[in-house]
Amino acid sequence: MNTILMIIVTFFAGMGAGLGTGFAGMSAAAVISPMLITFLGMDSYMAVGIALSSDVLASAVSAYTYGKNKNLDVKNGLIMMVSVLAFTVVGSYVSSLVPSTTMGNFSVFMTFLLGIKFIVKPVMTTKEAMEKVSPKKRAVQSLICGAMIGFICGFIGAGGGMMMLLIMTSVLGYELKTAVGTSVFIMTFTAFTGAVSHFAIGGMPNIAVWILCIVFTLLWARIAAVFANKATPKTLNRATGVILVVLGIVVMAFSILN
Predict the structure, then answer these.
(1) Distance CA 73, CA 210 (A)
(2) How far apart are CA 211 and CA 181, in angstroms?
């Protein structure tokens, strides 16, 4: 494998994934996987494993940054995480019983459309409005929405981060920063679970590519999270929207090339 090409590809893959994670809680798999497959000729299963493992530290450092700025709902995040993990298994099982569909690019289109949504109709919910919802109602909502997200992701096989951000802002009424912070908190654990299972089944990946993807994704996720927590709601909505639209277009282009 050409070393210079490997560094260039992993740098831009990590940059795209890190920005998507830090700004919008987006899964690194949506960016890293197609780039490793298209430009480095990597096996798709192993590429997803590398992307998921890159997501772990990137999501963790993003969650820490959002939590430090009091933009993280740990209690309801844990409730949703358990529900997501449980129903991802259910969705995966049901998916195995029905004919295959043409929904493989679901998360890519969702990324693009969600980006447009943030630009055209920004999320301006305040923390004061969030706090008016009773803790019991919020817990029940988190459980139900987590089940829905998990089932859809398990059935389709993609879209976890985007689904969580969409549900938290549009259905649960979360303020944008808290929605992203809680989303990356959940993604830390779901990505770890996915990465471990991938490597347990498929074996260890190319170490150099693996380490570079983790480092670059972590670096850019940290930069994005710091900026996001300092930005005004209006600026954050626009920045998040633009990044999602660009990433959606880029990933669609890679999918076509592949």
Answers:
(1) 31
(2) 25
72 Cα distance to chain centroid = 16
For the record, the structure tokens of 6 come out as 């490997």
Amino acid at 252: M
Of 217, 193, 168, 174, the closest CA to residue 18 belongs to 217
Spatial separation of the C-alpha atoms in residues 181 and 101, rounded to whole Å:
32
Amino acid at 13: A
Phi and psi at 38, nearest 5°, equal -70, -45
Candidates 221, 153, 234, 139; CA nearest to 188 is: 221
C-alpha atoms less than 13 angstroms from C-alpha of 202 in its C-beta half-sphere: 17
10-residue mean pLDDT profile of the chain (258 residues): values are: 90 92 83 87 86 92 95 94 87 65 60 86 86 90 90 66 85 91 91 84 88 96 95 90 86 70
In contact, 28 and 47? CB cutoff 8 Å: no
Give the pair of three-digit tokens for residue 28.
């690194």
CA separation (Å) from 144 to 44, 65, 80, 132, 175? 32, 27, 8, 19, 19
- Decide: 53 and 210 in contact? Cβ < 8 Å: yes
pLDDT at 255: 66
CA–CA gap between residue 47 and residue 24 (Å, rounded): 22
Please name which of 176, 178, 150, 177 lies closest in space to residue 163, comparing C-alpha atoms. 150
What's CA 90's distance to the chain center, in Å? 20
Q: Which two tokens stand for residue 130?
A: 């969030």
* CA dist., res. 177 & res. 169, Å (int): 10
Burial track 125-147 (b if 16+ CB lie within 10 A, e otherwise): beeeebeeeeeeebeebbeebbb
